[in-house]
Protein 1
Amino acid sequence: MSTTEQTRTGQSEVRDQIREFILENLAQPKGITSFTDEESLMETGVIDSLGIFRLVAFLEEHMGVRISDEEINPDNLKNLITIESLVLKKRNK
Amino acid sequence: MAYILQQLLQRSAARYPEKLAVWARGKSITYGELESRSNQLAHLLQQHGVRKGDRVGIYFPKCVESVIVMLGIVKAGAVYVPLDPQAPPERIAYIISNCGIRVLVTRPEKRRLLDEATLASLDFSVVMDQFPEQSNGSRVIPWAVLQEYPGDAAPPVTLTETDLAYILYTSGSTGRPKGVMLTHQNALTFIEWCAEKFQITSQDRLSNHAPLHFDLSVFDVYNTLEAGASLYMVTEDLALFPARLAAFIEAQAITVWYSVPSALTLLLLHANLRAEKLQRLRTILFAGEVFPMKYLQQLATLLPHLELYNLYGPTETNVCTYYKVDRELLPTMEKLPIGIACENFEVFAVNDRNEIVTEAGGTGELYVRGPGVTYGYWADLEKTQKMVVPNTFQRNFEEKMYRTGDLVQLAADGNYYFLGRRDSMIKSRGYRIELGEIESALLSHPGVKEAAAVAVPDETIGCRIKAVVASHSGETLIAAELQKYCGTRIPMYMIPETIEFREELPKTSTGKVDRVQLAQESLQQPVMQ
């Protein structure tokens, strides 16, 4: 596998893992069974004031990144795409 | 003295026309603009047939226009009904029907969530950012049309303080939300107490954290207007992110903050609060649920320069008692009182022998009387008669009192302490939730045979909700499916986080679901990670 393909696989894995976590732990308990990668998770109510911290804990524990209080903001956590971006950016440091 | 809410705005607009009245999402309006836009909306509504006492729904996420709309509706002599922008459309449709709402002020993305039948039942909607499009069987008036109406004065209305100003819907135990009717007098009785007690001036900068369908927002909006102060609305982009919220409080130099305790707990735990950054904040008020003592103590220590108050009261009375936190006593207090009655309210506890509790240590159900108390629930005579009852302790003239359903204890110092509920109403994040409403939603699912909703204590938010369900034989149900189903009927914060399936539910000797046992079982379970 070429480096670019490896990176791409790594990327989609990260996104899939995040999607799965959010679906099972944040969305389903609120009666939401699906969401697109682009949809704002705050606007749809998937992420609420408690959910944010559970998501951050998951990212830190399972994705091996450290997220500061300032980074917990609507730009980074808006949707699956931005969350994945945040994780990859931190990993590549 | 103002006797109807719009006079608060009119007076402040005359004194401070150029002053910032409301801020939200980086946008703001002055008192002059708020006054003239609300006048225009009042004329528009009346000219399209809105009459005194008509209910007008407000259905869009919080923004500066929210306050224009609230005031425009009362200036038309009508009654505003704030609708939760995050509630499932079916619930909104129910409220529109139950309340006889024939006019909505809304946005296209909200309006399109409503079904055909509901839209057809409306006379018209005023829609913001409305582009010319099909009206779906109901007249649509673009917000932009407002400018064609006179803004210098409101249309004449024959309101008195005893007329309804707004109706707030709360969770109902029999499965459907109920509308608490509130008059101008109800709101002003409370606001006048606040203005005096908290000395709110035109220099103050109040936050508005609560959604507009929750009565905490009545404090924020109308105290601002009364004093000619400025209101800074907290929208979801801030509310969900404690660090951002703290930055907002600092940047907007908020002087008075009022919210449920859970919001303060989240700030305390995740926002790295610093007293130096919050020097302008002089008063923090909290209400709606019990504030865990350890978090209150930490907050008080962190912010030594400000005053803290615990406010108590159901939507039916807004706030009826208060307690100012005594910083000297706080470190050793185990429990915070709900305090003593606000001026122009009377409260008393009634024991099992139907006597008013007067001795220290006595316990009973808390009753409230005075001009701050609701007349009752919209179109629900049965519930009204059950909760808003004749004051049998006073025989000189007919009057009503409200039974809160809260059990309280009277202390030697005259303060009341909250003991618990008579029934199955719980608080989660300050939200009032009737377990019965959740159960009704579950039971309406064809596969569900029995259902019980249980509150599992949680130190941050008060309670989490768990459901125990028995399905009809032959049916396999999964939690995710039931949760999704619930989401079509009840707001997200009421959906059970966990659902346990059993063959059948434990019963008492009289054949009713044994809730006590279920509650005990849930206490023994491990805390959710």
Protein 2
Amino acid sequence: MRKGKLGGGNPPPAVNGTVADGTATDGPAVNGPAANGPTVADAAVNGTSAKARAATGQVGPVPAVLVPLLRRARRIGRESGLRRRLSVLRSPAAIRIAVIRLLKGLQWQWRSSLQLRVVSTTLVVSAVAISLLGFFLMQQIAANLLGTAEARALTQASDGLVFAQNQPGVAQLPGPSSENMATGIVHSLQSGGQTGADYGVAISVLRDLVPPATWNYAYSSFDVHALPPSVVQTSSSRTKPPTMIFASMPYPQQGSPKTSGLLYAAPFGSDYELYYFFPLDQLQNELYLVQRTLALVGLALVFLLAGIAWMVTRWVVVPVARAARGAQLLSTGKLDERLAVRGQDEVAALASSFNEMAASLQEKMRELEELSQVQRQFVSDVSHELRTPLTTITMAADLLFESRNQMDQSAARSAELLQSQLGRFESLLADLLEISRYDANAATLEAELVDICDVVRQSADVAQHLAERRGARIEFRLPAEPCLAEMDRRRVERILRNLLCNAVEHGEGRDVVVTSAADRDAVAVAVRDFGVGLAPGEEHLVFDRFWRADPARARTTGGTGLGLAIALEDARLHGGWLEAWGEPSRGSVFRLTLPRETGAELLGSPLPLMPDHADFGSLAADPAADVPGPADYGSHEPGQERA
Amino acid sequence: MKGRVLVVDDDAALAEMLGIVLRGEGFEPTFVADGDRALEAFRETRPDLILLDLMLPGMDGIDVCRQIRAESGVPIVMLTAKSDTVDVVLGLESGADDFIVKPFQAKVLIARVRARLRRTDDPAPEMLSIGDVSIDVAGHSVRRDGEVINLTPLEFDLLVALARKPRQVFTREVLLEQVWGYRHAADTRLVNVHVQRLRAKIERDPERPEIVVTVRGVGYKAGPG
């Protein structure tokens, strides 16, 4: 309900109070923008113009032209953040899952695509660089424009001040005639400026002299009620030098939206003050235009750079990807794969050296295949050539052995030795042939679905005889339900027979425990003995060919020394594991783990390799208990062991 | 139990040794060292069993086996130096009843030969049937819809063993013991190959057997369901 121009007549008396209130409440609002963006505004103004500052004495906190923009950006940011938070709250689980999936996909893309990495890095780096550049450029332009505007405003205002000071009657104290004088000055100042210049002029009596004055302000075009209190002067500060600050005022008239501009305040005469307001909206508009242009150019530049990066990486990445695909095909056995060689650049060099590599690989493979073929044939020939005469010898020895009672003592003993050593020779030959079959990669798997518990029982017969002779027992701990898995029965039987015979042989007459178990992916058999055990490190050596724990014992116990090596190869052929555990004088464990489906990767075994620690706990406490009884082993639940 | 055995082997020493062992056990061995003359010798001597070496000069053992099988169900036991599955299966598929991998012991050879010759001389009259196949055990004949199916003695034994206890599942080991006479676990490839051969003869569609059915992970059984 504030009345507009004072130039038109006396304001209603009620205005007095309103004026004071208005200035008081509007003050902080005017300073607001400057406080909101102090760093930007200060930075923008610091570089403005030393000249202007020197002339005016001080330039207050600057509401930079960028501030409204900044404020808008911040508001948008706040709103979108809020909206996101709201939408997450609407269905949190679904959105979280979607976001996680998206992030994982992006992460995978990021890791798998060099091009994506290069392009996005270029995008980010150039965006940062260009926005920094644009920012400084913008600042420079703004400072220059502002400096010019300030200088022009200062000249205008100073001229006005001189004009006002030279008016007759200004040296007298304000009285009833002062209002007309002030209005006259304002009018002549308002119209006497340069053509096209847009500014407002006002004159006031110093604040603390009212009342009894009948008027406060004479003004032409802007709302003097909105003057910031810092510029409104009192009689005590009348010696203050002229001031120019940035301010935001309703302009061009009272009630208009606020406009940023330069506010000039200078005392003159006895108790008057002259105000000039130079709106900067024109300047601001210009700056916005420059800003928009800069932003568009910068954005275009960023995308151009990203596009260039995309093209360049494409030139490099596409041939590399082609080479990678070629190498992949090569590794899957497609040895005829070659790359097209175009031109003579580095990419062509890559392609041609890849082709050379493929060719030499192919050649080597062919040689190896031939070699393997030759070796296989050799093994087969040796096998046949050796076996036929050996058969005759074996049968002859059998015959001699049968009739040894009719010979004299030394001939009879010779027949016995011949018979027994022939057996050894035969098994050695069989093992050698088997291992050379593995070396020639000629071993094939005849997998069928079998219950491993059946195989365990079946393969125990030889070991049973051996155990009986040594006064030991073989204890079976087999689950009631079948442990089915795809396996080559003959090979698994051979493995188990070997493990069982070894266990009985090295068990020093103590019992042997066979445990089997199955889980979702694998079946396992563990053979535990309580004999001499293995020294540290021997759990790997036992699988070496012709390795013997104790060379002195070698000649007394049978076996070819190839048994475990073959067993290991047999297990590997299934994609399974054969592992050993042992401690001196505490016995040993050999565990066979086979995947339920041949070729499936094993992740763990249904049986533990090491016996329960409880075994050792009791052992350590009671040294008299030399060896744990078989009952101690396997008394725990077969746990899930992951290797 | 007298039995005439034809030994087809090119290795003179082994053939002689086989002769000594066979004679010692009361068999009557005759010899031929050449694949090409093996069929001729078989027709002349009409042996009760043939011991056939796989590697022969002239026609090789597989072909000899196929030709003899084409005209007779006489038991054939192969002697082979190769224990690789491919070789063994090839030999069995060509019609051999059993195989022995060299080197073997005399008593193993004799046991196998005896097992193949062991046939109850006068089986009790007995009629069996699985599906639409009927078996006359005493008459040693198999019919489907009145049509006679020719089976070798071994295939016949295998079918009878299964048919006597329909719906019972036989493991390969049990079949090896009952049909082949193996005491201890031996090569189950024997069973697989012979079941295939049997199916090829008696099943309407060997790909979808209805008479000799596989029980996955266990073995075989007779009859549908």
